[in-house]
Amino acid sequence: MKSFASRRLRNSILTIVVAVAVGWYAWWSKARLGRPEFATGYLLLSCLVFLALYNTRKKLPVLAWTTSAGWLQTHIYVGLLTAVVFGIHVACKIPSGYLEIALAALYLLTFASGLVGLYWTRSIPPKLARVSEEFLYERIPALRSQVQARAEQTVLETVRATGSDTLGEFFAQRVQGYLEKPRGLDYWFRPTSKVRKRLLAELTEVSRYLSEPERNASETLFALIRRRDDLDFHAAMQWRLKAWLFLHIGLTYPLLLVACLHGWLAHLFYGGAL
């Protein structure tokens, strides 16, 4: 824990030093009637290219020059540094022109998605670890089907054995739809255990009127309702991470293309040659 804290402190100090150096260079260059926009622009573009390489590194680990954790830490701090470089590059002014506005919008969206991803990748895994079991995202639909089939089999066998339909009616009216239907869109954006708690409370109330075999079956239903809720929670949280990554990477490459076009046009209008 101490080594991680020391690395974070070291990386933070290094990022601040580089940011201050870039700011000082921009001020020094302008004071001598220079054009720091080109240097800061190239630095920003280099940082963006480096950040984009992180996804390539994950796909081609044989090319790695450091650990995945090291790449990720560098990715985070370089990403934070780009905010300072971007602000210095545009001189903290609102961009004008369609290309500049598009470039600024792409950068801000990519940076904002990076911050959201940083928060989610830090907060979601501990939440998933508190769930009773870990589930692979691709297996969740099959596991849901297993839960539904087992619940239906348990209730059906109990009704046949006892001749009472109390538990069967409760299952058909309150639980079966919960196990068959997918969660609503609101749950995917804000998963809660509200439905689970309500069903368990209702099942607890019904258990007072059940026979001993039906109570045993209701205990199985208790476990299956909890398992279904755990599966839904995992699905929602893992989907959130997958959707974020798709969006973040999807914004990165258009940002690089527009940034390269912007740099090329800047040289043309300035009269330089590439």
From TrEMBL:
Stretches that traverse the bilayer: 12-28, 40-57, 69-91, 97-120, 243-265
Protein's name according to its UniProt entry: Ferric reductase like transmembrane component
Keyword annotations of the record: Membrane, Transmembrane, Transmembrane helix
